[in-house]
Every structure is written in structure tokens, then in C-alpha cells.
Amino acid sequence: MKKELYINLVERKRRGRKSFAVLLDPDKTRTSQIPQLAEAAAEAGVDYWLVGGSLMVSTHLDQLLEKLKKHSPLPVILFPGSPAQVNPRADALLYLSLISGRNPELLIGQHVVSAPLVKQSGLEILPTGYMVIDGGAPTTVSYISNALPIPSDKWEIALCTAMAGEMLGMKLIYMDAGSGARNPVTESMIEAVSTEVSLPLIVGGGIREPEKAYLNCKAGADLVVVGNILETQPALMRDMAAAVHSATPVSMGIEITNSSSL
Known about the structure:
It is built from ten helices and eight strands. It is α/β, with parallel strands linked by helices. The chain has helices at residues 4-14, 34-44, 61-71, 104-120, 140-145, 155-167, 187-196, 210-219, 228-232, 236-246; strands at 19-24, 48-51, 76-78, 92-98, 124-132, 172-176, 201-204, 223-226. The protein has a single domain (4-247), classed as TIM Barrel. It is globular, with a radius of gyration of 17 Å. The chain has an eight-stranded parallel β-barrel, surrounded by seven helices. The protein starts with a helix and ends in a 16-residue tail after the last helix.
């Protein structure tokens, strides 16, 4: 099984390098937009593409991925809302287990059904402990998952959940306030989890300002994911990437480049 991207993520964490990913929702991204988005990502210094959504009404995922790989050298990681979003044109798959919920289908059920398809896909599989955090408003992911999110002020629940995920063998932890969240994950919760969990920590949902992306990284996030706000304010891509990369400790003496150089 391929492990290139996982090794890359672990090495970046070890070296203190913060990463920035742009999330593309196939239902909201037209294939005609890809060349412009790829150019903007290259200029901004984006590190990864994430592709997926809680629902997928559109039928052009295959064409979107094909065009994205054609126009951008950045790694493409699937962030699937269902097994239907598994596609071999990407580089890797976040194999999500909703460890913050109690819905057996999203803990293991869908994984059992999709296992042959996932294994045959040739994708690099990234076992990910997925944690939905209350973002102050109903989100698609909380509705579709039929699971209560972790309260935003209960950092101890998030911490114990992430610790359990690590001890169960997850390779990544993803804390997500969800698309359209009113409030992003707090720095105190991020810090609590990152202090006790050694896995690369992904944080997303409700991040609308570069300063928040920076503070998330300083609190311990290794990879910050931004999606919705860039649909209406694409110029923020450069500022978000710069904010994330500026959180890398200067003392590390690391030159900030995107992940394709590692």
C-alpha cells in the first residue's frame, strides 16, 4: 500500500511545517473553473487539494479530477461524504471514521461495504479519525451523519476522542466544524488535542479570515482546510496560505515551499 503522502504529512509535522489545503466541493465547482483555480493555487503556495462533500448531486467528479490533475501538480486528496466519491484519479483518500459520533454506519458500516472498491482503487489510504465539532449552526455533515457534534466548549471530550482514535490506529485526526459553520474550532480545543496526540492534526470548517488560520496553526493544527469562503472571495486564497505558512517556527530555518517540493 502506498504511503508517500502520509510520510510527507508526518515529515512536515516533524519539521514544524504548516500546510494549507483548498477544499473543492464537486457540487459547487465547475470544471471550467479548474485552470483558473490551479493557477491561483500555484501563485498562493497551496499545499494540497481536498475534493469532496457531504452530498454529491453533480455527476462530473471524474471530469473535475481529470482536469485538476492536468492543470495542477499538487496532491489531490479525496474527502468523501460517501463511498460513491471514491475515484482512482485522485492521489489519496481520507478513509474517514466518524469517531465523534455513535452512528455505526459511519464508524465502520460503510467501510465494510466499500472495502473492495477502496482497495482496488489504487489510492493511498489515509485512515482518519473524523471529529465533528459544534460550529454554532446546523451543518450538512451533522445532518447527514445523524450524529451530535462535540460541544465547542468541551475540549476534554475532543481530547479523549482524539486519544482514542490514535490508540485505535488512526493515522490522522480531522477536527471539522463543518461547511457553513458559524464558529470555527476554538484554539483551546486545538491546543488540547495537539498537545496529547502525536498524529498530524487537520482542522477545518468556518475559517473565514487569515488570522484565524494562523491562530489555528499556532495552537497546533498541522493542516488547515478552507473551502466555502473561497467560493465568494477567491482572492483570500493567497492570504490564507501566507498566514498558515507564516506560523512555521522561524527557528526551524525552513524555507516555505509547497508540498510538491518534499
